[in-house]
Amino acid sequence: MSLRSILLTTLVILGVIYWLRARDLKQFALNAATQHCAKLDLALLDESVVLKSLKFVRNAQGRKCLARIYQFEFTVNGQERYVGEITLIRRSVLHIKLPPHRID
Predict the structure, then answer these.
(1) d(CA 77, CA 61)
(2) How confident is the model over 37-93, as pLDDT tens digits?
(3) Does residue 84 contact residue 97 with C-beta atoms inside 8 Å?
(4) Backbone phi, psi, residue 49, to 5°
(5) 90 neighbors 65 (Cβ within 8 angstroms)
């Protein structure tokens, strides 16, 4: 086996691991957003979250960690759509931001 094929195989394996982890974290973010919306009597639209960005933030201990920021859409009355954000560090929710919205 050549060094090139070992490198290529390693890159493919790392890519698959990243994809599986990203898929798992996206599902975790969707579940957290769904629970948060249900708690506030909001309707999560499209049953989905979308990765907005990856960035380094400081955790509670002051260490830099990679944070994933997802966006989701919700509604109060079915007419207006609002965009919320959920920020994850690993499998923990750092915060959920909702814009000002109408309360019926």
Answers:
(1) 40
(2) 999 999 999 889 999 999 998 888 889 999 999 999 999 988 889 999 999 998 999
(3) yes
(4) -125, 155
(5) yes
Tokens (6 digits) for 51? 């990765």
Tens digits of residue pLDDT in 55-69? 998 888 889 999 999
Q: How far apart are CA 27 and CA 24, in angstroms?
A: 5
Asked whether the beta carbons of 68 and 29 are under 8 A apart, the reply is yes
CA dihedral (41, 43, 49, 55) positive or negative: negative
pTM of the model: 0.85
- In this prediction, residue 33 has a pLDDT band, given cuts at 50, 70 and 90, of very high
DSSP letter for each residue of 59-93: -TTS-EEEEEEEEEEEESSSS--EEEEEEEETTEE
